[in-house]
C-alpha cells in the first residue's frame, strides 16, 4: 500500500500508550484525513488502513448496529482508539462473571496495553466511526471463545482479517 506523506505519523521508535492517545486524538481532529475512508455498510463493519510503517499502523473503522468484534487481543501491540461519531461499547472479559462494560461516545479516547482482552461492538441505530492506532503494528490478533465445557479457546487471526465473534469447538 502506498501512503501519502504524513510526516506527523512518522516515528523512529514504537509508541507508548500516551503517544498513541495523542496520535488518535490528533487524527480525529483532522477529518480531512479519515473521512474519505468511512464506509457505512449495515451488513459488515468496514475497516480501512490510513497508515502503516515499521512502528505504527492506523485504521479507520465504520460501524453499524450489531457489528461486533468478539473478544480479542492485539498480540504484542498496544493501542489507542478515538471515537469520532456515535458510541462504541467496549467489554472486558471477566472469568466467572459478566463482562465489564464501558461506553465510549464521540469524543472519547482510550488506550490499552498488549495484554488487554476486549470486545468492541456497536448497539445503537446510528453509525459510529473510530480511529485505531497500534504500536508496534498489528500482524496477528487472538480471537477468543468459550467452549460448551467452559474452556477458553484462542484462534490466531491476521491483522487483515475482519474480527468477529467466533464459536469454540468443544
Secondary-structure map:
Elements lengths: L16 H12 L2 H4 L11 E7 L4 E7 L8 E2 L4 E8 L1 E6 L7 E6 L3 E4 L5 E4 L6 E8 L4 E7 L5 E7 L12
Antiparallel strand pairs: 1-2, 2-9, 3-10, 4-7, 4-9, 5-6, 5-8, 10-11
Description:
- The protein has helices spanning 17-28, 31-34; strands at 46-52, 57-63, 72-73, 78-85, 87-92, 100-105, 109-112, 118-121, 128-135, 140-146, 152-158.
- It is mainly β.
- The strands form 3 sheets. A 5-stranded antiparallel β-sheet has the order 1-2-9-4-7, with helices on one face.
- The longest helix has 12 residues, at 17-28.
- Residues 1-5 have low confidence and may be disordered.
**Tally of helical segments:** 2
Structural class: mainly beta
Mean pLDDT: 89
* Largest sheet descriptor: 5 strands, antiparallel
Shape: globular
What pattern of helices and strands is seen along the backbone? HHEEEEEEEEEEE
How far is it from the N-terminal to the C-terminal residue, by CA? Answer: 39 Å
Helix content: under 10%
**Largest beta sheet: what is the strand line-up?**
1-2-9-4-7
Number of strands: 11
- Low-confidence segments: 1-5
What integer value in Å does the Rg equal?
Answer: 16 Å
- Strand residue percentage: 35-45%
Amino acid at each position: 500500500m502506498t501512503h501519502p506523506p504524513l510526516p506527523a505519523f512518522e516515528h523512529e521508535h514504537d509508541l507508548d500508550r500516551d503517544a498513541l492517545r495523542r496520535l488518535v486524538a490528533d487524527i480525529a481532529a483532522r477529518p480531512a484525513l479519515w473521512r474519505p475512508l468511512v464506509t457505512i455498510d449495515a451488513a459488515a463493519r468496514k475497516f480501512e488502513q490510513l497508515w502503516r510503517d515499521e512502528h505504527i499502523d492506523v485504521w479507520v473503522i465504520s460501524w453499524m448496529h450489531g457489528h461486533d468484534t468478539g473478544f480479542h487481543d492485539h498480540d504484542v501491540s498496544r493501542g489507542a482508539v478515538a471515537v469520532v461519531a456515535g458510541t462504541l461499547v467496549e467489554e472486558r472479559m471477566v472469568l466467572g462473571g459478566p463482562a465489564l462494560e464501558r461506553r465510549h461516545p464521540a469524543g472519547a479516547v482510550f488506550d490499552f496495553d498488549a495484554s488487554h482482552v476486549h470486545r468492541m461492538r456497536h448497539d445503537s441505530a446510528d453509525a459510529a466511526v473510530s480511529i485505531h492506532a497500534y504500536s508496534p503494528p498489528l500482524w496477528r490478533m487472538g480471537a477468543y471463545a468459550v467452549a460448551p465445557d467452559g474452556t477458553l479457546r484462542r484462534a490466531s487471526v491476521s491483522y487483515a482479517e475482519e474480527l468477529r465473534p467466533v464459536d469454540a469447538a468443544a
